[in-house]
Design goal:
alpha+beta; Phosphoenolpyruvate Carboxykinase, domain 1; Phosphoenolpyruvate Carboxykinase, domain 3; 3 domains; nine-stranded mixed β-sheet; binds sulfoacetic acid; binds manganese (II) ion
Length: about 600
Amino acid sequence: MTTPLQIWVEEQAKLTKPDKVYWCDGSEEEAHRLIEIGMKEESIAGTPIFRELNQKTFPNSYYHRSHPTDVARTEHLTFVCHPDKETAGPNNNWMDPDEAKEKMRGISDGCMRGKTMYVLPYMMGHPQSPYAKACVQLTDVSYVAISMRIMTRMTRDVIDKIGSREDFVKGLHSVGDFDPNKRFIMHFPEENFVWSVGSGYGGNALLGKKCFSLRIASYLGLREGWLAEHMVIMGIQDPRGDTTYITAALPSACGKTNLAMLESALPGYKVWTIGDDIAWLNIGADGRLWAINPETGFFGVAPGTSMKTNPNMMRTLKKGTFYPTLFTNTALNTDTNEPWWEGMDGAEPKNLVDWQGNKWDSSMGTKAAQPNSRFTASTSQCPALSPEFNNPKGVPISAIIFGGKRTQVKPLVVEGSSWQNSVFLGARMGSETTAAAIHQEDVVRRDPMAMLPFCGYNMADYFGHWFNIGKRLKRPPKIFSINWFRTDDKGNYIWPGFGENIRVLKWIVDRAHNKVGAKETPIGLMPHLKDLDLSGLSIKKENLEKLFGLDVKGWQREAEDIKVFFEKFGDRMPKEIWEEFYKMKAKLGGS
Ligand code: SAT
Ligand code: MN
């Protein structure tokens, strides 16, 4: 009997016209075969898809160079195609679904000619989890097939699981000819379908990640009563041995991976990693919020990663198991055949080529590694991986953190005073832009809950959904905002960050367990300095003021910017958001 899955694959093959259709089984043997093909048969702009790295120091690692125009997410080419524009909201690009499909059919006709179509059956979430979803992605490049094998649970069992069902999650991906004018990432939330052409870059091409697990899943969550969030999931073990689970949302390239596997600077504390990018949050029978990580890999920013900033990630990258590790658009040390990037430990190697293969040294004033160069590695290789990682139920969440990169105005940590105030606290977040997407860098943009590029529907409804979830929780987590990125007058970071962030996490955990008090301020609850363990740090008094004080003038300006953003949502914005906004504004005083 022909199944809906087989029919769908045949239809896509008829349109894209590959030479071969190959159904992946996710095995180790297959991964080796595809890497061989990527080293010998497939290429991008004349460069083989994979090149073997030093197998002694970086076992089972391979190097990949993307097309030079294809190095980050392209938000301006990303569309969410609900039948009506209002459902997509001002936070998304929108196209009518029929028009979008027509356009994509034109671009996709024959786009896999001369290539193999890989059929990738995969699960997002543990197969035994009630929250897991069965998915199939088609792609025409081995890099994406191998990346998906690292990032998801890819097995043939998924095909049996789908059986004769039609409601599996569908992804059609082709790199096309990398022409940026024919590059689109189209989402069809009503059909659980993503159609992406023209880019091989992570967030545009690994369709289980941002496209499904956030944009499409957030809309599923709205209809089914759960949340798909851009969040780290981690356990914090205290000196007594008790572990408290928290999640943390930060925009792309703001340190989520470093946070997720932080090595504690405070004795007796230990962090357990569950995820570094995506959390699916469901309300458990006990009325608590429970989190699973639907992914099985890390797709993290390489520059700045070192034994000092993220020792667990460096260990993960060098672990070498039957999952390959990939390095994309880093520089290469041509003496040792190792990947290299700015901020790596040790002196600058003598013989380097940059991410485009040109001879490079730092006197040239350019970057050797593309600023958004990435590693792709299996979570199973992480020494801090939580024993709960594969628990199909997930872990119960006691605190949620919203963060962003703000060199000015925002203090180190603030707590929401109620669920309503906390949703507003998440909604008002802003962050300076990074290299993770193609746009001007280092400008502040509002990025509520770090979901601006990932919420698959109108964000006004998303805030409403957060309020509704709160009403159903019997034991809601406490909610905080953090900012590790304040700078002094010379532009140097004030807060030491990385392993020292445990000091703030400790306060958050203590608050979650009602062990310490907090003081009320116009923007929320802030710590009494005596409750924060700052022992051994030397932070100047004026800088402590920046981290823990309230810049009233700065916040009055901030309020104006927040208002302009909120107004975009018109009448659809929940009234609770405006209530909290005007409460804050009144407390801040001024005009
Ligand atoms: O490109 S990804 O979306 O996968 C990574 C990121 O930007 O967070
Ligand atoms: Mn991310």
